[in-house]
């Protein structure tokens, strides 16, 4: 039942936008009784949040190409492809995160959990001798992905085929030059701070219209 | 008259959100007759676009601290501050860019024009001998700013005081290691391509609800 309901969220969101995504529309499309949908998900924010949680509940693993630069490039290709699809559920979810504080929280959780899974990319690079530990894996991976997001999400620019490789290469060069050094894992510091911050509330208000 | 009208856009946007930003509300707040506002700006998309154009029509220059890393860090501080304000007009404009294709185009124009003004930061670094030319200045600066945007715009995370300096340092290390090499200016290639792309239409559809 949950699957049926959540499967209706993405298509409705990309087809009709946030304003067309209503509990009633989700109920109608999924064939689940509207009272049930209201009881379990309450509102559109609840539906979006649970759809993002469900999307994160998969067995996705980052690419394993044999080199750090290859892995980061393949990861950036995945990001750019997800943002370039017409229609793009990823972009629609990002847009929705400005309308619902609940969706914003779930989007953040989803992204951070994806970045957690990417730590293995950096661990493998260290094991191969490509990088000298300690390296702040999350910061390195975010450094690689963020120009791709910047291009599509902030600039609304058409996909740039060269960007995934360029951004991956820049992150690798920065890492090799010592940009993402960190205290060893398990020690206090940034890592623990990041985790605490990830649990904190995202800011609401400016730019967000948590009307749901 | 234009100034009076456009000055009303930002405050209404942050106070009431995109849905509360109407031509009538802008007319009322600015004291300009609504027929005049409709005639000149047509709709909310037109008002947002012109407000962004007006915001770009200033004498802003990137920081000049005496070093490439210092300049990029100060620039990142400015970006993070603009995104951290409560309320943040910058964040509200980014949110609005998902609602109006016209606002998205103007946001992109605004950002690209800011990045053009930042080329001097890289020129100064080259003149000081900090970097070996040729360097793709825009790519270097975007590499520095994009983790800051990623943090606030994608993750909706609270400002991270360490991030501006970390992102600036990573971009400088990558640049020194040769990440943003380019053909010399004036030659064909990426630079010309970027400019052509900046004039192209931003994608609409997925994630955007250009209802205005």
Written description of the protein model:
The relative contact order of chain A is 0.13. With 212 residues, chain A is mainly α. In chain A, helix 1 (2-20) packs across helix 6 (89-96). Chain A is 67% helix and 0% strand. Chain A is built from eleven helices and no strands. The two termini of chain A are 23 Å apart. Chains A and B meet through helix 1, helix 6, helix 7, helix 9 and helix 10 of A and helix 1, helix 6, helix 7, helix 9 and helix 10 of B.
Describe the secondary structure blueprint for this structure.
The structure is a homodimer of 212-residue chains.
Chain A: H1 2-20, H2 23-30, H3 34-41, H4 44-56, H5 68-84, H6 89-96, H7 101-117, H8 119-127, H9 137-154, H10 163-176, H11 190-199
Helix pairs in contact in A: 1-2, 1-4, 1-6, 2-3, 4-7, 5-9, 5-10, 8-9, 9-10
* Gross morphology of chain A: elongated
Radius of gyration of chain A: 19 Å
Distance, first to last CA of chain A:
23 Å
Mean pLDDT of chain A: 88
Helix/strand/pairing category of chain A = mainly alpha
Biggest interface reads:
A-B, 61 and 61 residues
Largest sheet of chain A: none
Considering DSSP H and I runs of 4 or more, what fraction of the residues of chain A is helical? 55-70%
Order of helices and strands of chain A: HHHHHHHHHHH
Number of helices of chain A: 11
Oligomer: homodimer
Contiguous low-pLDDT stretches of chain A (5 residues minimum) are 187-212
Strand tally of chain A is 0
Note the beta-strand portion of chain A: under 5%
